[in-house]
Amino acid sequence: MPEKHLSTQFDTELSAVSTRVMELGGLVESQIRQAIYALSQFSVDVANEVTATESRVNAMEIDIDRELSSIIARRQPTAVDLRLLIAISKATANLERVGDEAEKIARMVRSIINSGAPRSLPSLELRVASDLASGLLRKALDAFARLDTAAAVAILKEDDLIDKEFDGFVRKLVTYMMEDPRMISPSLDLLFLAKAIERIGDHAKNIAELIIYVVKGADVRHTTMEQIESAVK
């Protein structure tokens, strides 16, 4: 069989699985938006919708991994192509974990509502952090689709903003609990919820690191920003 034909088939299969990853990304982004909306509206029904979506996310992860395994077995890719397939698998795993965090937020929202906590809980900062995390994930997926290393570096730097939002919210939450000890339980739920949002930003960061791995062949996990920028040059 001519090499060109094999290459065309590989490109077609790669495009199809990449499309599925983007669909998965869109689904978990929707979960995040719904989970935070459930918090802002104190809606158990919306929180339940987030939980119900989790099975779709899990099924998509399995389907994508199955297709990736099939491509690797049949095409036996090497070098950049193999790195790309490995990165797609890892990106898929990160997206599934984002779905887990969204589902966790939904569970915390139900717990807060069932506790009878007032709607005046300090949740505005969480919506800001959630928008940052969701936006970062969207940027990471877009950069991954284009294999844009410059965008990946920018995403890694932007993740610090989410960490700062989390730290500021924790300080405010401690003050809130000290002022009204009756709010300790729902406030702790908010704290776990905030941590889930922070982790969503971490998963976006992981996807950005995968872009550099594919393009440059460098594993930049657990390295400094200076080392990352040097690897990209």
Which labels suit this protein?
single chain, 233 residues, mainly alpha, flat, disordered N terminus
Short note summarizing the structure:
By secondary structure, the protein is mainly alpha-helical. The protein has seven helices and no strands.
User: How many strand elements?
Assistant: 0
Briefly note the structural class of the backbone: mainly alpha
Share of residues in helices: over 70%
Please indicate the percent range of residues in DSSP E strands (runs of 2 or more): under 5%
In sequence order, what are the helices and strands, one letter per element? Answer: HHHHHHH
Identify the CATH architecture: Up-down Bundle
- The domain tally reads 1
Distance between the termini: 38 Å
Shape: flat
According to CATH, the homologous superfamily is: Phosphate transport system protein phou homolog 2, domain 2
Compute the average pLDDT: 90
Give me the CATH fold name. Methane Monooxygenase Hydroxylase, Chain G, domain 1
* Gyration radius over CA: 20 Å
CATH class: Mainly Alpha
- Low-pLDDT stretches are 1-5
**Major pleated sheet:** none
Counting DSSP H or I runs of 4 or more residues, the number of helices is 7
